[in-house]
Amino acid sequence: MLNYRAPLADYRFLLHDVLAAPAALAGCFDDDLLSPDLFDSVVEEAAKLCESALLPINRDGDEIGCTLSGDVVTTPPGFRDAYDLFRQGGWIGLAADPDLGGQGLPFCLNAVLQDMMMAANLSFGDYVGLPQAAAKTIAAHGDDHQRQLYATRLISGEWCATMCMTEPQCGTDLGLISMAAKPQSDGSYRLAGSKIFISAGDHDLTPNIVHLVLARLPDAPAGTRGLSLFLCPKFMPDEHGAPGDRNAVQVVRLERKMGYHATSTCEMLFDDATAWLVGEPNRGLAAMFTMVNVARMLVALQGLGTAEAAYQAAAAYARDRRQGRSLAGPVDPAAKADPLIVHPDVRRMLLSMRSFTEAGRLIALWYAIELDIAERHPDDARRTRASDLIGLLTPVIKASFSDLGYAACNDGMQIFGGHGYIRDTGVEQLVRDSRIAQIQEGANGIQALDLIGRKLGGNGGRAWQAFIAMVRDEIAACGNAPETADFANRLAAALDRLERATGALQQRVTADPVAMGAAGVDYQRAFALVLFGWAWLQLARHSVGSDQPQRAASLHVARYFFERELPRIDACLAIADAPAGGLMDMPDDLF
Ligand SMILES: Cc1cc2nc3c(=O)[nH]c(=O)nc-3n(C[C@H](O)[C@H](O)[C@H](O)COP(=O)(O)OP(=O)(O)OC[C@H]3O[C@@H](n4cnc5c(N)ncnc54)[C@H](O)[C@@H]3O)c2cc1C
Prior knowledge:
Elements: H1 8-18, H2 21-24, H3 36-54, H4 58-64, E1 67-69, E2 72-74, H5 79-88, H6 107-141, H7 144-155, E3 160-164, E4 180-183, E5 189-199, E6 209-216, E7 227-233, E8 235-237, E9 243-246, E10 249-254, E11 265-278, H8 284-320, H9 344-376, H10 380-415, H11 418-421, H12 427-434, H13 444-455, H14 458-478, H15 485-511, H16 514-543, H17 549-565, H18 568-577, H19 581-584
Parallel strand pairs: 3-6
Antiparallel strand pairs: 1-2, 4-5, 5-11, 6-7, 7-11, 8-9, 10-11
């Protein structure tokens, strides 16, 4: 069984010492919401909740999963009670607008909560994350009535939500969506068609569920420009929100899947279901992207949270399990064998996992702070910079966190050997659960296309220039201290290589768009290495001189990262630079 403990000291170090979150958010929130004591108590309470309410039901969630009877989905034992605790504690509206009933706290605290939820129980995370994302979308694009009737109830946790995009013939290419929306004389619409793979499509946690659905109006243009966003409740509410008649939307099938068993994944039939337009006709994709971007961060945290749970389990096991002798001679001659932790290869895997989790937490919290700055900072230029960085880094973070998260869970299983493959230890569940993150919310190959095709060159490369400047500032801050100068020099060289490769790639893509797809994933990995290098410089800079063991550990992990992870950038960029012909010249029929 897994025994995840939220890394509280780490969150405190990141929020207060490294990111100075209260100071960074000054001007964005009232001062009383930025008190360090408030931050600490929210983080501690969130940790208690995830450890005590979510971790104990994680195993049954996997073993028993969701069940469909008639058209009603039942969640595994304990999920309703856990959801009630989240709802009663106001956790779903932690960072939501107080005018809509939220607590209005900084989003970085919500990111901490989401990270812990994913570590303790990845499947449960969607039941909290989806209403948060849907409420934000309705608040941003809906009318006042929709905000008051629906967003408030999502924020309070009274109702849950879904994101309905995928159809049998349409996954990545949303322009293929065919669900029809027929206008009615009373201003409503009727939705007709099927959606598949809908997370939390039905369940017994809330008395109503709000589906946000992409569909096509009659005579809408083809492709994504013809998509509109609709809000379609499971039960039709009266004006006070009391759920009334059942709407014509139902689950017809519960998907059987590799992991993530306690999140219901539903095929949904909309059989002339009543719905209302959210925002402008044919502007639905842009509106839905509010939800998608929130969900991309949630998915990134699936990678980060599961990696932390795997790391904790593997590190404890490696100290305890005894096999073989250290190559340098017995470490514990009195015992018949040394603990696994003496073996370089086991340490390689542990350090690889930790080089992701520690820096990943910093990146996630920094990103969450920038989200608030982008929306609330009084200074225009600062808001623009934050918004640029978020746009540029969202695909990099979604893809790298989910790739590294899955790799970390796999390494965790490897450290357990055969005992990891056997179900008892819980790490094989982490491997199965974390795998979805590489696929959903835009498969990782698509994130690379977004990065290269849209984000790098956006606004004349303004976001890219802001990123380079941010990394260079950190290199300058670390370049003169003896403890960090070598790390800074290594990152400076890597950044130079990435800059040269970026210029060359942009030129190649202009001449041959196929180059973008051929270079995509390897270029994105190189980019992520620089992002993680930036995070590791900060962690190292703030750890130097500390007498705390945790900070000494971070300096060791930083060294591991700069010596053994960052050099992968050369291979990634060499591959990204290879001619596309190596992928494209082989005729399709020879595959
Ligand atoms: C458990 C689960 C939960 C889900 N939850 C939801 C949900 O709540 N709501 C929802 O709407 N959807 C949901 N999905 C759907 C998910 O978002 C899609 O599976 C995903 O977007 C990929 O679509 P697809 O499966 O059709 O794959 P495809 O689009 O067929 O893609 C297959 C592969 O081809 C690659 N590919 C496709 N097009 C291109 C291209 N142009 N260039 C390069 N490579 C390309 C992809 O990267 C991928 O690797 C869920 C899926 C699962 C499995």
